Automatic annotation (TrEMBL):
Residues 569-588 are annotated as: Disordered. The keyword Protein biosynthesis does not apply. This is Coagulation factor 5/8 type domain-containing protein. Keywords: Signal. Residues 1-37 form the signal peptide. Coiled coil: none annotated. Gene3D superfamilies: Single-stranded right-handed beta-helix, Pectin lyase-like.
Length: 588
């Protein structure tokens, strides 16, 4: 089905496609495939073998979906990566079950351009009905008519549900209502009721829902039409009428027969979806302006493409880099589909962004290598000072993992030095299970360090770091929703001692900061190897009028460790083996 003329009338900022030239041979050896001045890298091209495109006439769609799910259902730390793309049109009788590293996406300009009379399902049969390890999968830009009237999407971290229209209910729990620890919804319309059931926490942004069933520990909403009213601590709903600043994730779509990438416009005081009131606001770039990155490409080749003026589309795969990928040009789009995974070798950084306007990073997984990297992802160099309020850098669905797939180390996972950066949904995870896991084996002291001013985080998930999970040094920072677990494997109290303070806070605002604000923040501890450990607090911040927190909680999971306070010396302690949160409605 072709797009209507009205949907083609979007502002195009792309220049003419660069001249195509034969692609140099790309190898795994250091520096292989670097483009010379006489041999420019071409834009566009095919999307590779792990991007599977369907249209309504494609035979055997369900069989192909089942084949990929069987391969990926329990392959938590494997190399398989897939993007399943559905051209605009109507599909009948499908159930796209999503396993690890699988993304399903519609190729319309609006979700309603691609309708599945069926389901996009995530369940937890592979893990005995426990959904707490249903990571790294996504659903985007589709309309669903669920067969039973309710679509099941039982996920935990790093599993976004974006730009979806569910013409029915959305169930976020596994069959049997087992444990689940999600999750994230953005730019979606759910005509029926969202049913979290056993979900411990959830963040929903700039969407519309027909109803919301319940909350367990921490349910946060910003800019959501139909969201429940503010009621924390009981029910545990934190509701902001709008999102301060947002810009939706870029996405691939078809304009007639041509692939393009749509870049949604910046919104302030956003509420509701970006697409439900006519032609979406934004610009588009043809795929010919992108270097399509495939497995085997080196950092040298990728950097040459950026220097040449191309944007980057990473296709599903695992990419080892021997030097950082350098994003130096304003407005560069770096979009991954199907969980492309960047692994830095030799202790280098994986990705560095210059202090320039408008860079968009989206849809990437960074996996620490066995030799320690000081920083895995750096947004702006140290000392960055430019203002980017009119055109901020955005970091969306960019996930970081230290260990799990093998021994990995990184002193700091994500450093944000550039002012006005928007971090929109990230899971920064020091692994607590899998291969290469141990207090020193996958050592990682800091999850997120924010040095820039006016940085906004919407949907911040950071877990298990040896020291501070979040260290916020910049002024006027804001966080809407935070989920944290302290490191499970701390060997004793001394290992987590912060000077005279027992335990490193999950979220620390520097003593020098005068203005900061957070809404809906939770920290949990489960010191399985040393259950007598005490955290003096989950949150630490200077006591000043400009530093404000709303709706905080700490939880001891089964009494394995305890919190003495929630924030600083404020808030009741957790106690005993009952997993009951201690909550603070406002601070100071």
């Amino acid at each position: 089905m072709s797009l209507s003329p009205s949907r083609r009338r979007i502002i195009a900022t792309a220049a003419a496609a660069l001249p195509a030239a034969a692609l140099p041979a790309i190898g795994l050896a250091t520096g292989a495939g670097t483009a010379s001045a006489a041999s420019a890298l071409p834009g566009g091209g095919d999307l590779g073998p792990n991007v599977i495109v369907f249209d309504p006439a494609t035979p055997g769609i369900q069989a192909k979906l089942d084949e990929i799910f069987k391969r990926q259902e329990s392959d938590q730390f494997g190399r398989g990566r897939y993007a399943l793309l559905f051209k605009p049109g109507t599909y009948h009788g499908l159930n796209a079950q999503l396993g690890f590293y699988t993304s399903v996406m519609g190729l319309g300009l609006s979700p309603d351009d691609t309708l599945i009379n069926g389901d996009v399902t995530v369940d937890a049969g592979w893990f005995g009905g426990n959904a707490t390890q249903n990571f790294w999968r996504s659903a985007e830009n589709l309309a669903l008519n669920p067969v039973s009237g309710t679509n099941r999407f039982a996920v935990s971290q790093a599993s976004p549900f974006r730009r979806m229209h569910v013409r029915g209910n959305l169930n976020l729990a596994p069959d049997g209502y087992g444990w689940a620890s999600g999750g994230y919804i953005a730019d979606c319309r759910i005509d029926g009721t969202v049913q979290p059931y056993s979900q411990q926490q959830w963040y929903t942004r700039d969407s519309a829902v027909g109803g919301w069933l319940n909350g367990v520990w921490n349910m946060v909403f910003s800019g959501v039409e139909g969201a429940p009213a503010q009621s924390f601590p009981d029910p545990p709903y934190t509701t902001l009428p709008t999102t301060p600043v947002s810009r939706e994730k870029p996405f691939l779509y078809l304009d007639g027969g041509e692939y393009k990438v749509f870049l949604p416009a910046l919104r302030t005081g956003a509420r509701g979806t970006s697409w439900g009131r006519g032609t979406p606001q934004g610009t588009s770039l043809p795929l010919s302006r992108f270097y399509v990155v495939k497995e085997g490409a080196t950092a040298a080749t990728v950097n040459a493409a950026v220097a040449q003026g191309l944007h980057l589309l990473f296709t599903p795969g695992v990419y080892h880099v021997d030097r950082p990928i350098q994003i130096t040009r304003p407005g560069t789009v770096v979009l991954g589909i199907g969980y492309p995974t960047i692994v830095p070798d030799g202790g280098v950084s994986a990705l560095r962004v210059a202090d320039v306007d408008g860079v968009r990073l989206a849809g990437l997984l960074v996996d620490a290598g066995p030799r320690n990297s000081e920083v895995l992802v750096e947004i702006g160099p140290a000392g960055a000072s430019a203002g980017h309020a009119a055109d901020p850098i955005t970091v969306q669905d960019v996930f970081v993992r230290i260990g799990g797939a093998g021994a990995g180390k990184a002193t700091t996972s994500l450093v944000v030095n550039s002012n006005h950066t928007i971090i929109d949904h990230t899971w920064i995870w020091r692994a607590d299970h899998g291969d290469g896991v141990g207090w020193e084996t996958n050592r990682a002291d800091y999850g997120v360090v924010v040095n820039g001013d006016d940085v906004l985080a919407t949907g911040l998930f950071v877990e298990h770091f040896n020291k501070y999970d979040v260290q916020w040094n910049g002024e006027r920072g804001r966080t809407v929703f935070f989920q944290n677990e302290k490191a499970y494997d701390a060997p004793d109290q001394a290992a987590v001692q912060d000077g005279a303070v027992r335990g490193f806070a999950a979220y620390k605002v520097a003593d020098s900061v005068t203005t900061h604000e957070g809404w809906g923040l939770g920290s949990y501890c489960y010191y399985k190897d040393a259950p007598t450990i005490v955290q003096d607090h989950g949150f630490a911040a200077p006591r000043r009028p400009g530093v404000k927190f709303h709706d905080l909680l700490v939880v001891s999971l089964g009494g394995k460790g305890q919190y003495a306070h929630v924030i600083n010396d404020h808030g009741a302690p957790t106690s005993g083996t009952d997993t009951v949160p201690s909550k603070v409605v406002s601070y100071p």
